[in-house]
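Data card: per-record layout.
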Amino acid sequence: MNELELLKHIYATATAPSAEVPIPPGDDMAMVSVGGRSILVAIDQVVAGCHYDEAVTPLSLVGRKAITRCLSDVAAMAARPLVSLVAATLPVALGERRATELFDAVRETAEHYDCPLIGGDIAIYRQVAGPLVCSVAIMAEPTGLGPIRRAGARVGDRVYVTGVLGGTRADDGLGHHLLFEPRLAEARLLAETLGQRLHAMIDLSDGLGRDASHLAERSGVQIVFDAERIPCRSGAPWRQALSEGEDYELCFVATGEVPSTLEGIPVTAAGEVCRREPGAPLVVVRSGGRNLDATELGWEHRSP
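The structure for this 304-residue chain is written out next.
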């Protein structure tokens, strides 16, 4: 089963935009209109053996990541979180003490980011052992320009990345993928600073290659990166930075002058938006005088 192909099918068969659902599946969050108010909604999950190594990861960090993964989608649309809900399926062997540790971390993290936990659901495996699954839904509201979407990149725009990429998992299975800060403040500041010059944005959860391909496909363009300009974490080669995933930084497309830092986080011009010829790759990396297809460089959300 291929995650990307399944998502394409879901997007292609989703209900067309309407007055009640002006942003359908295909962006980082959907948007619904309720009583004259626009609400953004998204759901995400952490699964043992896929999103964390259960042998070494404290449940406090599992609960934290369950919330912050979803908040990264909120940041991608330059929105403000409102409330959250959690649904978890737990192994019976987890025990009450450890289950309490997990849910305390979820609640505390949600409160820290001003999206209080307001409900959810719990199920427990009895007959069949299965992985811990913790799903979080978040509601948010647009700010400033409104939600920044994946479509909107224009030929001649520059492509920027916040922070550094790659090396998200330390040798012990811990590291950045558990401790990252969702770029909520940076995204809103970016929208306020650039205004209409901010054309498109996405958060980097699946790897720069694959996530940039979503921007390119939605905008009908090609994105070309320069391998030497991709901001890599120390020790991470550019190919790892494009494909490893779970960076939770922002990739955005803009024109004109762009700040070199946001809230102290570096911003790097790593590529440009070009015209895409029929059949050409969505994402290309220029390296050593060669153009390499990077469209499929990314991380599949599956267990080993």
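Known properties of this structure: The domain at 158-293 is CATH 3.90.650.10 (Phosphoribosyl-aminoimidazole Synthetase; Chain A, domain 2). The radius of gyration is 19 Å.

See the next section for split statistics.
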